[in-house]
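Preliminary data (for renewal application), 5,10-methenyl-6,7,8-trihydrofolic acid complex.
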Amino acid sequence: MKQYLELLEETLTTGCLKGDRTGTGTKSLFGRQIRFNLQAGLPLVTTKRLHTRSIIHELLWFLKGDTNIKYLNDNGVSIWNEWATETGELGPVYGAQWRNWKGVEGESYDQVTALIAGIKNNPDSRRHIISGWNVADLPDETKSPQENVANGKMALPPCHLLYQWYVAEGKLSGSLYIRSNDLFLGNPYNTCSLAIFTHMIAQQCDLDVGEIIISIGDCHLYSNHFEQAKIQLQREPKALPELIIKRKPDSIFDYHFEDFEIVGYDPHPHISAPIAV
Ligand SMILES: Nc1nc(=O)c2c([nH]1)NC[C@@H]1CN(c3ccc(C(=O)N[C@@H](CCC(=O)O)C(=O)O)cc3)CN21
Ligand SMILES: O=c1ccn([C@H]2C[C@H](O)[C@@H](COP(=O)(O)O)O2)c(=O)[nH]1
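Predicted structure:
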């Protein structure tokens, strides 16, 4: 995870002081990229313990097309609670756009089903994309997440908004554009999630895994994460764990939490940090 730690250090030492929507304040850089070879292990941060349970459940929740936090909460995951309405709704966020993008006539597009068919049938295609940036459903930044949901809009606009996969020499690589990335809390989730998603797609399409590439627009450290970032930078990274998927489910939609095992994850202790809402 050298690249992640280098980016953390660069942001901490050279980032521009910048205000933000949450009123917290950040150090920020614009336009950075990190990449990981999935053959070298699962790119999980080892300089603090990550809650992989939350990451796996969140990915399965996206794939269900679900946009209500009930499934997450029932599984002990609370990472989306701050943005939901009293009934748990988040509006047409990731799951809705991935599985049920609405066309002008009200027709529905399932981007995930199309992606798997595309990779299986035409691996050389340069159109293996999932986009979350549906302009018609974007929220009004002057209103609260809950008000936006009441108006039929997303609680938050997608941060990880453009995915692309690429097949060459029997290997599947994944690339992700993140327009705004909370380097301490969000980025480790986004990296791990893309890695696991890429392993799942590769398994479904009988491919090996290649690389993942994360491209970031506004790359920021919140001012109340500076001390936590410094602690992490003093720690020595450990060996990467490995992801085992215990069976091959019938489709990309049939994975269960119990199908995933992360072996050899021996990180430094967890470092807690407040989330900017
Ligand atoms: N400011 C901010 N940063 C984010 O990363 C973020 C948002 N907002 N809003 C939407 C989603 C929600 N995500 C989140 C939310 C909370 C944690 C978090 O608090 N993580 C803790 C552990 C909490 C847990 O898993 O139960 C951590 O230490 O990693 C991480 C990602 C990513 N996104
Ligand atoms: O997957 C995610 C989701 C969210 N984030 C972070 C990035 C920002 O800190 C906030 C979103 O605030 P905006 O004002 O809408 O940019 O959430 C992330 O890093 N990863």
